[in-house]
Amino acid sequence: MSITSPVMCCENLRKVYMQGPEIIEVLRGCDFQIFSGEKVAIVGSSGSGKTTLLNMLGGLDVPTSGSVSVAGTELFDMTEPERGLMRNKYLGFVYQFHHLLSEFTAIENVSMPLLIGGISRAEADDSSLNMLERVGLSHRGLHKPSELSGGERQRVAIARALVTKPQCVLLDEPTGNLDKTAAIEINRLISELNETVETGFVIVTHDEKLADSMHRKLVLENGVLRE
Protein backbone atom coordinates (compact mmCIF):
# COMPACT_ATOMS: atom_id res chain seq x y z
CA MET A 1 0.00 0.00 0.00
CA SER A 2 1.33 3.41 -0.95
CA ILE A 3 -0.10 6.14 1.29
CA THR A 4 0.57 9.74 0.23
CA SER A 5 -2.14 12.38 0.60
CA PRO A 6 -5.91 11.93 1.09
CA VAL A 7 -7.87 11.45 -2.12
CA MET A 8 -11.17 11.92 -0.30
CA CYS A 9 -12.11 13.67 2.94
CA CYS A 10 -15.34 14.47 4.72
CA GLU A 11 -15.70 16.66 7.77
CA ASN A 12 -18.56 16.85 10.25
CA LEU A 13 -20.96 15.22 7.80
CA ARG A 14 -24.58 15.29 8.98
CA LYS A 15 -27.78 14.02 7.39
CA VAL A 16 -31.20 14.73 8.88
CA TYR A 17 -34.60 13.63 7.58
CA MET A 18 -38.01 14.84 8.64
CA GLN A 19 -40.58 12.10 9.22
CA GLY A 20 -43.75 14.04 10.00
CA PRO A 21 -42.97 16.03 13.13
CA GLU A 22 -40.05 13.74 14.00
CA ILE A 23 -36.42 14.53 13.16
CA ILE A 24 -34.40 11.48 12.10
CA GLU A 25 -30.68 12.13 12.43
CA VAL A 26 -28.95 9.47 10.31
CA LEU A 27 -25.43 10.89 10.42
CA ARG A 28 -24.36 12.98 13.40
CA GLY A 29 -21.02 14.40 12.32
CA CYS A 30 -18.89 11.88 10.44
CA ASP A 31 -15.22 12.55 9.77
CA PHE A 32 -13.44 10.37 7.23
CA GLN A 33 -10.49 10.32 4.86
CA ILE A 34 -8.96 7.77 2.52
CA PHE A 35 -5.55 7.72 0.91
CA SER A 36 -4.31 6.52 -2.46
CA GLY A 37 -3.98 2.75 -2.45
CA GLU A 38 -5.85 2.29 0.84
CA LYS A 39 -8.70 -0.15 1.46
CA VAL A 40 -11.29 0.86 4.06
CA ALA A 41 -14.33 -1.13 5.16
CA ILE A 42 -17.39 0.55 6.68
CA VAL A 43 -19.55 -1.82 8.70
CA GLY A 44 -22.63 -1.40 10.86
CA SER A 45 -26.08 -2.76 11.48
CA SER A 46 -28.81 -2.58 8.83
CA GLY A 47 -30.33 0.89 8.77
CA SER A 48 -27.31 2.52 10.39
CA GLY A 49 -26.80 4.87 7.44
CA LYS A 50 -23.90 3.18 5.64
CA THR A 51 -25.37 3.55 2.15
CA THR A 52 -26.42 7.12 2.92
CA LEU A 53 -22.84 7.91 3.90
CA LEU A 54 -21.46 6.23 0.77
CA ASN A 55 -23.87 8.18 -1.46
CA MET A 56 -22.71 11.46 0.06
CA LEU A 57 -19.06 10.51 -0.32
CA GLY A 58 -19.82 10.07 -4.02
CA GLY A 59 -21.85 13.27 -4.30
CA LEU A 60 -25.03 11.33 -5.10
CA ASP A 61 -26.83 12.66 -2.02
CA VAL A 62 -26.50 16.11 -0.43
CA PRO A 63 -25.68 16.35 3.30
CA THR A 64 -27.62 18.52 5.71
CA SER A 65 -24.28 20.02 6.73
CA GLY A 66 -20.60 19.25 6.51
CA SER A 67 -18.23 18.87 3.57
CA VAL A 68 -16.89 16.23 1.20
CA SER A 69 -13.82 16.89 -0.92
CA VAL A 70 -12.45 14.71 -3.72
CA ALA A 71 -8.98 15.40 -5.12
CA GLY A 72 -8.96 18.59 -3.06
CA THR A 73 -12.23 19.94 -4.50
CA GLU A 74 -15.37 20.43 -2.40
CA LEU A 75 -18.20 18.46 -4.01
CA PHE A 76 -21.10 20.47 -2.65
CA ASP A 77 -19.76 23.81 -3.84
CA MET A 78 -20.46 22.50 -7.35
CA THR A 79 -23.57 22.27 -9.47
CA GLU A 80 -24.95 18.78 -10.12
CA PRO A 81 -23.50 18.69 -13.68
CA GLU A 82 -20.10 19.65 -12.27
CA ARG A 83 -20.37 16.89 -9.65
CA GLY A 84 -21.19 14.47 -12.45
CA LEU A 85 -17.98 15.38 -14.24
CA MET A 86 -16.01 14.93 -10.99
CA ARG A 87 -17.57 11.51 -10.44
CA ASN A 88 -16.71 10.46 -13.98
CA LYS A 89 -13.09 11.56 -13.64
CA TYR A 90 -12.19 10.68 -10.06
CA LEU A 91 -14.65 8.11 -8.71
CA GLY A 92 -15.85 4.61 -9.52
CA PHE A 93 -18.96 2.88 -8.16
CA VAL A 94 -19.84 -0.80 -7.59
CA TYR A 95 -23.19 -1.84 -6.11
CA GLN A 96 -24.69 -5.02 -4.69
CA PHE A 97 -26.64 -5.37 -7.92
CA HIS A 98 -24.29 -4.88 -10.86
CA HIS A 99 -26.50 -2.37 -12.76
CA LEU A 100 -25.07 -3.43 -16.11
CA LEU A 101 -27.05 -2.42 -19.20
CA SER A 102 -28.67 -5.63 -20.41
CA GLU A 103 -28.67 -4.76 -24.11
CA PHE A 104 -24.92 -4.10 -24.24
CA THR A 105 -21.94 -6.46 -24.19
CA ALA A 106 -19.38 -6.57 -21.39
CA ILE A 107 -16.95 -4.43 -23.41
CA GLU A 108 -19.68 -1.89 -24.16
CA ASN A 109 -20.72 -1.71 -20.51
CA VAL A 110 -17.15 -1.15 -19.35
CA SER A 111 -16.63 1.47 -22.08
CA MET A 112 -19.57 3.64 -20.96
CA PRO A 113 -17.70 5.87 -18.44
CA LEU A 114 -14.94 6.49 -20.98
CA LEU A 115 -17.38 7.39 -23.75
CA ILE A 116 -19.22 9.73 -21.38
CA GLY A 117 -15.84 11.32 -20.60
CA GLY A 118 -15.26 12.03 -24.30
CA ILE A 119 -12.84 9.22 -25.17
CA SER A 120 -13.06 7.88 -28.74
CA ARG A 121 -14.89 4.60 -29.25
CA ALA A 122 -11.78 2.76 -30.43
CA GLU A 123 -9.69 3.93 -27.48
CA ALA A 124 -12.52 3.18 -25.04
CA ASP A 125 -12.96 -0.35 -26.37
CA ASP A 126 -9.21 -0.99 -26.16
CA SER A 127 -9.04 0.24 -22.55
CA SER A 128 -12.15 -1.78 -21.67
CA LEU A 129 -10.73 -4.99 -23.09
CA ASN A 130 -7.51 -4.42 -21.13
CA MET A 131 -9.48 -3.92 -17.93
CA LEU A 132 -11.62 -7.00 -18.60
CA GLU A 133 -8.37 -8.92 -18.97
CA ARG A 134 -7.29 -7.59 -15.56
CA VAL A 135 -10.43 -9.08 -13.99
CA GLY A 136 -10.07 -12.34 -15.92
CA LEU A 137 -12.90 -11.81 -18.40
CA SER A 138 -11.31 -10.81 -21.71
CA HIS A 139 -12.78 -13.98 -23.24
CA ARG A 140 -16.29 -12.85 -22.25
CA GLY A 141 -16.10 -9.34 -23.70
CA LEU A 142 -18.75 -9.90 -26.37
CA HIS A 143 -21.23 -11.54 -23.99
CA LYS A 144 -24.23 -9.68 -22.61
CA PRO A 145 -25.05 -9.70 -18.87
CA SER A 146 -27.70 -12.41 -19.28
CA GLU A 147 -24.96 -14.70 -20.60
CA LEU A 148 -22.72 -14.18 -17.56
CA SER A 149 -22.80 -15.67 -14.06
CA GLY A 150 -23.43 -13.48 -11.03
CA GLY A 151 -19.74 -13.39 -10.16
CA GLU A 152 -18.82 -12.56 -13.75
CA ARG A 153 -21.34 -9.71 -13.87
CA GLN A 154 -19.87 -8.26 -10.69
CA ARG A 155 -16.36 -8.52 -12.14
CA VAL A 156 -17.57 -6.59 -15.19
CA ALA A 157 -19.01 -3.96 -12.82
CA ILE A 158 -15.64 -3.71 -11.07
CA ALA A 159 -13.89 -3.35 -14.44
CA ARG A 160 -16.32 -0.55 -15.34
CA ALA A 161 -15.58 1.22 -12.05
CA LEU A 162 -11.81 1.03 -12.60
CA VAL A 163 -11.53 1.69 -16.33
CA THR A 164 -11.27 5.48 -15.91
CA LYS A 165 -8.40 4.97 -13.41
CA PRO A 166 -10.26 6.78 -10.63
CA GLN A 167 -8.64 7.92 -7.42
CA CYS A 168 -11.27 6.15 -5.32
CA VAL A 169 -13.86 3.39 -5.84
CA LEU A 170 -16.97 3.23 -3.65
CA LEU A 171 -18.47 -0.26 -3.25
CA ASP A 172 -21.85 -0.92 -1.63
CA GLU A 173 -22.19 -4.58 -0.55
CA PRO A 174 -20.27 -5.86 -3.61
CA THR A 175 -20.57 -9.50 -2.48
CA GLY A 176 -24.04 -9.27 -0.93
CA ASN A 177 -25.83 -10.82 -3.90
CA LEU A 178 -23.29 -13.58 -4.59
CA ASP A 179 -22.88 -17.17 -3.46
CA LYS A 180 -19.95 -18.05 -1.21
CA THR A 181 -17.61 -19.13 -4.01
CA ALA A 182 -18.25 -16.01 -6.10
CA ALA A 183 -17.91 -13.78 -3.01
CA ILE A 184 -14.48 -15.27 -2.23
CA GLU A 185 -13.40 -14.62 -5.82
CA ILE A 186 -14.56 -10.98 -5.68
CA ASN A 187 -12.77 -10.50 -2.33
CA ARG A 188 -9.56 -11.84 -3.87
CA LEU A 189 -9.98 -9.66 -6.95
CA ILE A 190 -10.47 -6.47 -4.93
CA SER A 191 -7.29 -7.14 -2.94
CA GLU A 192 -5.32 -7.98 -6.07
CA LEU A 193 -6.47 -4.89 -7.94
CA ASN A 194 -5.84 -2.67 -4.94
CA GLU A 195 -2.22 -3.79 -4.87
CA THR A 196 -1.67 -3.02 -8.56
CA VAL A 197 -3.79 0.02 -9.49
CA GLU A 198 -3.11 2.27 -6.46
CA THR A 199 -6.79 3.22 -6.23
CA GLY A 200 -8.47 3.73 -2.87
CA PHE A 201 -11.37 1.41 -2.05
CA VAL A 202 -14.21 2.31 0.34
CA ILE A 203 -16.36 -0.77 0.90
CA VAL A 204 -19.68 -0.92 2.76
CA THR A 205 -20.19 -4.55 3.67
CA HIS A 206 -21.71 -7.12 6.00
CA ASP A 207 -19.08 -9.64 4.82
CA GLU A 208 -16.77 -9.99 7.82
CA LYS A 209 -14.04 -11.75 5.83
CA LEU A 210 -14.02 -8.92 3.30
CA ALA A 211 -14.03 -6.28 6.05
CA ASP A 212 -11.18 -7.99 7.92
CA SER A 213 -9.05 -8.03 4.76
CA MET A 214 -9.07 -4.22 4.53
CA HIS A 215 -6.34 -1.93 5.82
CA ARG A 216 -8.86 -0.28 8.14
CA LYS A 217 -12.33 -1.18 9.39
CA LEU A 218 -14.70 1.57 10.56
CA VAL A 219 -17.97 1.05 12.38
CA LEU A 220 -20.93 3.35 11.77
CA GLU A 221 -22.91 3.40 15.00
CA ASN A 222 -25.42 5.95 16.24
CA GLY A 223 -24.59 8.17 13.29
CA VAL A 224 -20.86 8.35 14.04
CA LEU A 225 -17.88 6.60 12.40
CA ARG A 226 -15.46 4.89 14.79
CA GLU A 227 -12.32 2.85 14.27
Summary, kept brief:
This protein is α/β, with parallel strands linked by helices and 227 residues long. The protein contains 7 helices and 10 strands.
- Trace the largest sheet across and list its strands: 6-7-8-3-9-10
Please name the CATH topology of the domain at 6-99 and 164-226.
Rossmann fold
Give the helices and strands as they follow along the chain: EEEHEEHEHHHEHEHEE
State the CATH superfamily name of the domain at 6-99 and 164-226. P-loop containing nucleotide triphosphate hydrolases
Beta-strand content estimate: 25-35%
Give the % helix: 25-40%
First-to-last CA distance: 19 Å
Q: What's the total number of strands?
A: 10
CATH architectural name of the domain at 6-99 and 164-226:
3-Layer(aba) Sandwich
Q: Note the overall shape.
A: globular
Low-confidence stretches: none
Could you give a short account of the major beta sheet? 6 strands, mixed
List the helices and strands and how they pair.
Elements: E1 6-19, E2 22-35, E3 39-43, H1 50-57, E4 65-70, E5 73-74, H2 80-90, E6 91-94, H3 106-116, H4 121-134, H5 150-162, E7 168-172, H6 180-197, E8 200-204, H7 208-212, E9 216-221, E10 224-226
